[in-house]
Design a protein that fits this description.
Elements (H helix, E strand, L loop, with lengths): L6 E6 L5 E7 L2 E8 L8 H4 L2 H4 L3 E6 L18 H15 L4 E6 L1 H12 L3 E7 L10 H12 L3 H11 L4 H9 L2 H10 L16 E7 L5 H11 L2 E5 L11 H16 L6
Bound molecules: ligand MQW.
Length: 267
C-alpha cells in the first residue's frame, strides 16, 4: 500500500481471533483483498497490484496467523471456514451493502467460499485457485507441514518458489511467515478446503483466473460451466509464474470496477 494514505484497522473474527489490516480509501464498491497461504497483506503493494488499482477502496487483511493477526496455533482453527469468517469480519467492520472480493491462490478459493456464504459479495475473483473438489494427498500435505516445521522451514518454501520461477514478492512473503503457524495452516487444509465450492447466490459475478499453460486449465473451465463463472487466462506457463502478472490482472479488475461505476459494468 502507498504509505501516504493507509488506514490501519483491527477487528475480531467469529472465533475471537484478532485480525489486523490496512484500508486504502477510494471510490466505488470496496474490494477485500485475500492473500494466499504463505503470505500476508504486504503482497498487494509488493506485487504492484495496489498501483494498478489506483481508485478502488481496498481492504487488505492479514488472515489469522499471518502478518500482524493473531496466532491461533491449531490446524482446526485454520480451516477454510475460519478464513471465510475472517473475511466476513472485515465486511462487517466496514458495513457496506456490497463488496468485491479478490483472492490469490488459497485466498482465491477462500474468496469463492465467501461469495457462496455471503450475498454482500457481488463479484469474486479467484487468482489461480479453482472451485472444484481437490484430492488432498495426505502424505504430501503432512510432509510439507513437517518440512515447514523444521529449522530450515523457510528454505523449503523459498527454494521451491525460486525453482518454479515465482516473483520476488512471493519468495519474500514466505520468509515473513511464522513457521509453526504456517505448519498449522497447512494441516488446516484438511478442515474443509478439499470440497468443491458451490454457487449459492445467482446474481454474483464469479471470475476464475489461471495461466494459459496451466496443466489443470480444464479444472478451471469445469468451474466456468458448473458455476457460470467467467474465465480469465493470463499469458504464463504455470499458475505460480502467473504471479508475475498480478499487477496486470489488477488493471483489469480496475477497468471492470470503473465500468461498473459508469453503469456499463461488464457482466
Ligand atoms: C509446493 C509447495 C511449496 C506448495 N505450498 C504452498 O505454496 C503453500 C505453503 C504451504 C502450504 N501451501 C499450500 O498451498 C498447500 N500445499 C499444497 N496444496 C496443493 C495446492 O494446490 N494448493 C493450492 C491452494 C489450495 C489448497 C487447498 C485446496 C485448494 C487449493 C495452491 O494454490 N497452491 C499454489 C501452488 C500451485 O497452485 O501450484 C500456491 N499456494 C501458495 C499459497 O497459497 O501461499 C502460493 S502458490 C494441493 C495439495 C491442495 C501443495 C502440496 C504439495 C501439499 N504444496 C504447494 O502447493
Amino acid at each position: 500500500m502507498q504509505q501516504r494514505d493507509l488506514e490501519p484497522f483491527e477487528t475480531t473474527s467469529a472465533d475471537g481471533a484478532r485480525l489486523h489490516g490496512m484500508r486504502r480509501p477510494g471510490t466505488g464498491t470496496p474490494v477485500v483483498l485475500v492473500h494466499g497461504v504463505a503470505m500476508d497483506r504486504r503482497i498487494w503493494a509488493d506485487s504492484g497490484f495496489l498501483d494498478a488499482v489506483p481508485d478502488a477502496d481496498l481492504l487488505a487483511l492479514d488472515l489469522r496467523g499471518r502478518g500482524a493477526s493473531e496466532r491461533v496455533g491449531l490446524p482446526q482453527r485454520h480451516g477454510i471456514d475460519r478464513h471465510v469468517e475472517d473475511v466476513r469480519a472485515v465486511m462487517d467492520l466496514f458495513g457496506h451493502p456490497e463488496y468485491t472480493v479478490f483472492g490469490v491462490y488459497f485466498g482465491g478459493r477462500t474468496a469463492l467460499r465467501v461469495a457462496a456464504d455471503d450475498s454482500r459479495v457481488t463479484r469474486a475473483y479467484s487468482f489461480c485457485a479453482h472451485a472444484e473438489e481437490v484430492e488432498l494427498p495426505d502424505d504430501a500435505v503432512e510432509q510439507e507441514a513437517a518440512a515447514i516445521e523444521a529449522p530450515d522451514g523457510h528454505r523449503y518454501l523459498t527454494d521451491h518458489f525460486h525453482r518454479v520461477g515465482a516473483p520476488d514478492w512471493m519468495v519474500d512473503a514466505c520468509r515473513r511467515v511464522d513457521l509453526p503457524e504456517l505448519a498449522a495452516v497447512t494441516r488446516g487444509l484438511w478442515h474443509g478446503s478439499a470440497r468443491a465450492v458451490q454457487r449459492r447466490n445467482p446474481g454474483q459475478d464469479l471470475v476464475l483466473i489461471t495461466a494459459e499453460g496451466d496443466p489443470e486449465r480444464d479444472v478451471f473451465t469445469a468451474g466456468e460451466r458448473r458455476l457460470g463463472a467467467r474465465i480469465w487466462l493470463v499469458d504464463s506457463p504455470t499458475r505460480v509464474r502467473a504471479a508475475h502478472r498480478l499487477a496486470e490482472v489488477g488493471a483489469r479488475v480496475a477497468t471492470e470496477a470503473a465500468g461498473q461505476a459508469a453503469g456499463t459494468g461488464a457482466r
